[in-house]
UniProtKB/TrEMBL annotation:
TM helices/strands, residue ranges: none
Keywords, sorted A to Z: Signal
The protein, known as: Tricarboxylate transporter
UniProt cross-references to PANTHER family, sorted A to Z: BLR1237 PROTEIN (PTHR42928:SF5), TRICARBOXYLATE-BINDING PROTEIN (PTHR42928)
Keyword Magnesium tagged: no
Matching InterPro entries: BUG, Bug_dom1
Signal sequence bounds: 1-30
């Protein structure tokens, strides 16, 4: 089976070459969820990109899981998503009735040694990986002054609604630093959807949304001339280089904007740190896990369900409209994405920890 995606993404190439077909072709397992309710839990509020992602997959899981169970999305926001992840760490359901969807906002505290983290990714069993992208946008009055670089906006006082510097917001906040922007984050919003609402109310003048939330909630603002897109974070090509996001090919990548902005460098430890967390937070961002207690039969059942739905003739079109053009990984591809998303080099980690301490007074103690 080939997974059809647009764009030459590195992870997509991995997926195509790792024998996902063996999952789709396997015989049905003995597992059966007839009459049961499956809880698809995400550690976020119901207004952001993770909610759109989970709600896209929930009915497809119901259709393809053995026994066609009812699949409902449950929301457990709090503490930058660590509260929900800590809860999932304690779950022992072995029958497949609970799955958990993580995001970079869950991975980052884990990578940085956040003391709130009581979960261990290595204990969980991954069954799906999803890449995504992100778009930074401005209000019209500032968008008019953006011409591919931020040189004329470096003295502007920006306000940004943030879930926290160690959440997925680490990627835009570090990008803003590399660009030399004066951005004052307003910490404490529960989800990126709340950050967007701050932007709509005029309480923030710079924002970003993941691709799914941008397509659903920000494109209408752009069409009404209430928002102007500035750049995407980009995507990875087959050689691991940052290129334009295939979902938004007309928008420059952060690398392009950085190269055009005076003082922003696309080499060195700062750039390497940004790229490492971009990969963890976007290129291999969203992952679906079963508890560590799940049997191999249950893992196989979920892997087959995801593989079967990806094989549907209209999946590429439906997923593009809802989530953007990004790869979905099953089996070995999901395992590789899991490893990428939960690993960071010591140098990149140190750079980010030093920046967090210096700029925000945040230390991992």
């Amino acid at each position: 089976m080939d997974i059809k995606v647009t764009g030459k993404l590195a992870v997509a190439g991995v997926i195509a070459g790792l024998g996902v077909a063996t999952i789709a072709a396997s015989t049905a397992t003995a597992q059966d969820l007839s009459g049961k309710t499956v809880e698809f839990v995400i550690p976020f509020a119901e207004s952001g990109g993770s909610a759109a992602w989970a709600n896209f997959f929930a009915p497809l899981l119901s259709k393809h899981l053995a026994g066609n169970p009812t699949v409902v999305v449950r929301y457990r926001p709090g503490a930058g998503s660590t509260e929900g992840a800590n809860w999932f760490q304690e779950q022992t359901a072995a029958d497949g009735s609970i799955v958990f969807g993580t995001s970079g906002s869950t991975q980052f505290p884990y990578l940085l040694g956040d003391p709130r983290v009581r979960y261990e990714y290595k204990d969980w069993k991954v069954v799906l990986s999803s890449g995504t992208g992100g778009v930074v946008y401005l209000p019209p009055e500032l968008g008019e002054r953006f011409d591919g670089d931020f040189d004329e906006l470096k003295d502007e006082a920006f306000l940004y609604g943030s879930q926290g510097a160690t959440t997925l917001d680490l990627v835009p906040l570090l990008a803003f630093k590399l660009l030399g922007l004066q951005v004052d984050p307003v910490f404490g919003v529960e989800g990126r959807g709340d950050g967007r609402l701050m932007f709509e109310r005029g309480e923030a003048n710079i924002d970003y949304q993941t691709s799914s939330a941008y397509l659903k909630s920000v494109v209408p603002l752009v069409e009404q001339k209430l928002a102007v897109p500035a750049f995407t974070f980009g995507a990875l090509d087959a050689e691991g280089n940052i290129v334009r996001d295939p979902t938004f090919p007309d928008l420059p990548s952060f690398k392009e904007v950085c190269e055009a902005t005076e003082g922003c460098e696309t080499s060195g430890v700062g750039w390497d740190a940004w790229k490492a967390f971009f990969v963890s937070g976007f290129a291999a961002q969203k992952l679906v896990y079963l508890p560590g207690t799940a049997s191999q039969e249950v893992v196989d059942m979920y892997s087959k369900a995801f593989s079967d739905m990806i094989a549907e003739p209209d999946f590429a079109t439906r997923s593009e409209e809802t989530l953007g053009v990004y790869p979905q990984g099953v089996g070995k591809a999901a395992l590789i994405a899991h490893d990428q998303a939960t690993t960071v080099s010591p140098e990149a980690k140190k750079y980010v920890l030093d920046w967090l301490a210096e700029d925000y007074g945040i230390t991992m103690q």
